[in-house]
Every structure is written in C-alpha cells, then in structure tokens.
Amino acid sequence: MYVLIAFLTPLLHALSCIVDAHFSNNIFKKIPSLVFYATISNVIIVPFLFFFGTPSIPSLEILAVLFAIALIEVCYQIPYYHALRNIDTSIVVALFSLGGITIPALAYFIVDEKLSLTQYFGFGIILLSTFILNFDIRKLKINAAFFLMLVVSVLLSLSSVLSKYSLQNVDFVTVVFWISIFATSISLSLLLLPQYRIDIISTFPRYKKRIKLFLSNEILNQAGTLAATISLTYLPVLTVKSIGSSQSIFTLSLNFVLYKIFGNRFKENLTRHDVIKKLISFSVIIIGIYMVLSN
Q1: CA 271 to CA 254: how far, in whole Å?
Q2: What's the alpha-carbon Rg for the chain, to the nearest Å?
Q3: What single-letter DSSP state applies at residue 25?
Q4: DSSP labels for 90-122?
Q5: Phi–psi pair at 264, nearest 5 degrees
Q6: DSSP states of 221-248 as a string?
Q7: Element (H, E) at 252
Q8: For the segment 145-196, what is each residue's pLDDT rounded down to a tens digit?
Q9: Which of 226, 232, 5, 1 is nearest to 107 (CA)?
Q10: Can you tell me the distance from the alpha carbon of 119 to that of 239, in angstroms, rounded to the nearest whole number?
Q11: Among the four residues 145, 190, 206, 256, which has the most C-beta atoms within 10 Å?
C-alpha cells in the first residue's frame, strides 16, 4: 500500500510541474516574485492537516531541522524555475533523479540506512539514463539545465534525508505543519529587500488574477509532498526517490494529452524523434525503479 502512496507523489508533482513551467515561461519575468507567490500559497495545506491529527511542538533540534528543510524548499525553486525556461518540462523532471548521486551517502550517514548492491545498481541505471537524455553527442555538451537541476536534486535529496530523520522523532502532521509555516515565513522575508519588494508588489495583479490556479497547483504539490512524507515513514529514502523518478513519464504523458486538448501551449517538444528518445530513457528509468523495488 505504501508503494502505491509513494507513486501518488510523481503523478501529482508531474501536474504541478506543468503548471510551474507555465508560470515561469508565460506569467512572471522575475523568478524571485514567482518563488514568493508560489511559496506563500502553501499555507492552504495547514487547515487540512488537522483532519489527520494535531501538530505538536517538537524539540529545538527538530525545529532547526524542519527550518532547514523549509529553507531548502524555498531556495531550490530558483534554479528549478530557471531550468524550466531552458528545456522541456519532462526532461527537467527527469533530472530530479540526479539526487541519487548524494542520496546513498546521505542516507547512510544520517539515518544509517543500507540497501543491497542490486538496489544501488538500479539507481545507477536511473542516473545514467538521465545523463544520456541530456547529453548532446554532436556538440559534446550538456545543457545548462543539467547543472541547474543537479543543484536542485542535491538540495532535495538532503531535504528527503532530513525529513526521514525528523519522522523518526515526530509524526508527519507535525513535520508538514512546521515546514509550511517556516517556508511561508522565509518567503515573506523577501518583502524586506527593496529590489524584490518592488517587483512582488507590481506583479500582485497577475497573482490575484490566477490565484485559483496557484492554489490548485499548491494542492497538487502539497498532496504529492504529503504522500512522499507518509511513504518515507515506512519505506527507505532511496526507494521513495526511485519511485519519484517515474515523474518524467507522467509529465510527458500529461503534456501529450494537454497538447491534444489545448494545442502547443506548454513547454514540451513532442516531435516523433524527441518522444522516442524520451520514452527510451524513461523506460530505462522504469527498469532502474524495478531493480530498486525488487529487494
């Protein structure tokens, strides 16, 4: 059952990433303003947490860890939105798998989590497929989005391990609650900086006009994060991250459906050559996921 819950994360986050790409490419010129409005929208999840339980006040140590997670949740969006402007959405999503470079080491040292050789090999296959997907053999060059998403993936990998550590001490309701509160507070602090405050205020009408889309996107994102948090309670970090690698497949499929309905309004190259290349790479990712889950 928890494996199925874990698969909700890539599905919901795939939808969210498509909306993110729309915001980054078509609505906001300056990324800090987009980060501000995307982050403050996350308070919508707080009231719903009380359906699952009442958040507690953890120790100062755990609060510090949760603050670090919230800081990561805000900061990773900057290179992430830049990457969405440089390459197809499904490829950006596939690059989240780069976090596997650091996940095994972080999981071992922080939560003493060990996996089998086959599982590590499966995750290596996932990493190799993302590299091939983003390497231009004619120019012998890797696109800039690869390096941007490497930073994003390392940050989110650290966030996952820290979340695992937190969940060993407090329940998931407390974890999600405090991360949401801290992330919103960090985002509001941008208003203290004049160079950001001016653009945030000037772009408020754009946010107000699309507030329903922002809130819907936040529900998708938070529901996906909640599913990941629950699954992290019962599954190894590396397993949850491997399942998350299937997000690129969901993103490509959903973009294809949206293309058929709305036309070429979303950032996704759907030519036959590119789709075949992506499907092959994503299929290899599925094999890697199977290897990780088979132990």
Answers
A1: 15
A2: 19
A3: I
A4: HHHHHGGGGGGGTHHHHHHHHH-----HHHHHH
A5: -80, 70
A6: HHHHHHHHHHHHHHS-HHHHHHHHTTHH
A7: helix 247-262
A8: 788 888 888 888 788 888 888 888 888 888 888 998 899 999 999 998 888 8
A9: 232
A10: 9
A11: 145
